[in-house]
Amino acid sequence: MSKLHISMNYCFRVFILSMFPLSAYAHVGSESLMGLADGFMHPFMGIDHLLVMLAIGLWASVLGGYRLWLLPLVFLSAMFIGAMLSFNGFVINGMEVWVAFSVLAVGLVLRQNKEVSAVVACSLISVFAMAHGYVHAQEIGNGLSAEAYAVGFLMATAILHLIGISARLFGLVTLKKIKNMYGLICALTGMAILVGS
Fold this sequence. Notes:
This protein is mainly alpha-helical. About 75% of the residues lie in helices and about 0% in strands. The N and C termini lie far apart (about 40 Å).
């Protein structure tokens, strides 16, 4: 069996596992339970990850229409690919810088009131999501299940996207104010991270 086939099989298993709720792990070993918990908590622990995950949901909320679900879906898919690259031993340098840059970039995007195409939005999101997925996967602890860890951080990311999307419930006028303020926070934080790194 080729390495490519093994990697594809591994990716497919993780994707299928991510479709199951937490209860699917109720009867497995502590390695999976701990991996799931650690993976779930990770996006909430770093300010760079947290800001970008919320920003993607907010950006999708601002664009509306089919992009409301497309942007988060593309982010989750690209994040999964980034994680699989890390889990399978691919070495990509500078991913931490891309994560920091993503905070600045989404901040600037939110501050701009320009309409962008779905292709441009998805392309930008894909690059940043792969960096986030790669970095998330690198931070897995010893003795943890990689599959469960990936499921955990994908679930947390989806929740953060939904929180960002929920800003649409406040109405378009308030949404624009939230978008502008949040964009400024992301841009300033991203600049501070990049300068400090």
